[in-house]
Amino acid sequence: MAYTSQDLLTVLVAAVLTAGIYAAMSYGLSIIYGVMKIINLSNAGVMMLGAFTTFELFRRAHMDPFLASLIVFVFYFSLGLVMYRLLVRRVVTSPPISSLLLLFGVWLVIQNIAILIWGNQDESILSKYTFATVSVLGLPVSVTRLVVFFVSIVALGLVYFFLTHTYTGMAIRATAQNRDAARLVGIDVEKSFMIAFALGTALAAFAGSLLSTIYSFNPDFGRVFQLKSFSIIVLGGLESLPGVAIGAIILSFIESLSIFVMRASMQNFLAFTILVVALVVLPNGVAGLWQRGRG
Amino acid sequence: MSAPLLETKKVSMVFGGLVAVRDVDMQIEEGEIFGLIGPNGAGKTTLFNMVSGVLKPTSGRLIFAGKDYTGLPAHLVCRQGIVHTHQVVRPFRNMTVYDNVRVGLQFGGREHARRESTHDQVMEILEYVGMAGRAQELARGLPIGYLKRLEIARALATRPRLLLLDEVMGGLGPTEIDATMDLIRRIRDSGITIFMIEHHMRAVMGISDRIMVLHHGETIALGTPREVSQNPVVIEAYLGESAV
């Protein structure tokens, strides 16, 4: 079967749009790792909850799903604060296995609660955007995907601005770079941890909310995306926003272009192959390569 | 005579069964340079960590400017006016020199209210330590001599009343040591009391008003540099160690 340049363009546009949401869903994991040095496995469960919360707001309150995603962000930020106060606070300074297991447990609990509430079948959100398309570069592009892309980029931009231009953001960055030094110059490191955890949780739920407008979901939703997030942040060097953006673009382009050479159902296999290759070849990620280059 | 700026009353630190610091009593007067010396493992850094709030003493009290602050967490101790620089430098590596100082200005300091630091305040501190020309460089690219100064600059930015210096001379060459001694004197003359751990004898003897000697966690001598250097117990502690 021959492919036309039109096909290639379609795939490239899709890859760019996917990269946006990939970056948004991965950055939460990256912030939490960067600041607290813990791997937040509950991220996947929170993504799924974000999707179902959007679903309920859409189904019961007839709310626009994108408006719902903002409410999800705020709500899960608060939930993140509570999770930190009740649970995560106790394991931040323990060996990594404690936080890993704790948050894995949180994920299982969240998942099973979701099964009790929503059952195990797939749900989806069919809104007025679902089947709408607009023309981009002469190609029909789904309105949902376009809006998801822009909302993701704006959200990441706002988070980045928060981290680089506010008082609290600066405290969080300083904590990430050296928590002992941060403490010694008068930064409340506990507070940095709490806000970083809440922000990461809010971003995961927000990404789940956006993803629910594109994909169908069930209580196991989030697992595949979480594993993709790992590939992305490992590629990107674990803790920088530019790194995450680059990782998201790489994964999204490889996945999209693979359509020309392998079945679409093999895409997930690619993410893990990339994860393994990245860990072996580029343990500090693409950003690490760039830093090394600059001496 | 006015009350001392810092006073420790029988502070001890026990790690498991090991006594790192035992019943140390000392008083540091406002405006002095107070040196702390002792062989490796004497408990000097542990004592520093207790004074700066990183470690909570197992027993004893810490009093700063007349207030008992035993058990206060490190970031709040910093906001009381005690700041600590580390033997192993701890810069915010991915921030510029400028931003490293700005963090200190914004979060440290004695008042709790948030403040916006001004460009002038940052530059004034950088001028003071002789790093204004490197303001926009990333901390991770700096050579060790500058990292040590950056550590001091960031500490000064918190506007301390008491500055704890942990081996700032370590790894420096003779000219850098002279420059750092001069810097420490200027800091003291600007009204900041200095409490310093130093292995470099010429430096610590040259600038300290008083010196305390710690050995196996206990105070074995306290006095002027001359008194301390002629104290037979001190000489034995040092020679005894080097003879091992």
What can you see in these coordinates?
With 295 residues, chain A is mostly helical. Chain A has one domain (5-294): ABC transporter involved in vitamin B12 uptake, BtuC. Helix content of chain A is 73%, strand content 3%. Chain A has helices at residues 5-36, 43-61, 65-86, 96-118, 143-165, 167-177, 179-184, 189-211, 223-236, 241-258, 267-281, 285-293, and strands at 133-136, 139-142. Chain A has a two-stranded antiparallel sheet with strand order 1-2. The mean pLDDT of chain A is 87. Chain B has 244 residues and is α/β, with parallel strands linked by helices. Chain B has helices at 44-51, 74-80, 97-107, 119-128, 144-157, 174-189, 201-207, 225-229, 232-243, and strands spanning 6-15, 18-28, 33-37, 59-64, 67-68, 82-85, 162-166, 193-197, 210-215, 218-223. In chain B, strands 6-7-8-3-9-10 form a six-stranded mixed sheet, sandwiched between helices. In chain B, a hairpin with a 2-residue loop joins strand 1 and strand 2 (18-28). The longest helix of chain B has 16 residues, at 174-189. Chain B starts with 5 loop residues before the first strand and ends with a helix. The A-B interface holds A 167, 170-171, 173-174, 177-178, 180-189, 295 and B 52, 54, 73-76, 78-79, 83-84, 86, 90-95, 99, 102-104, 106-109, 114, 141, 154-155, 157-158.
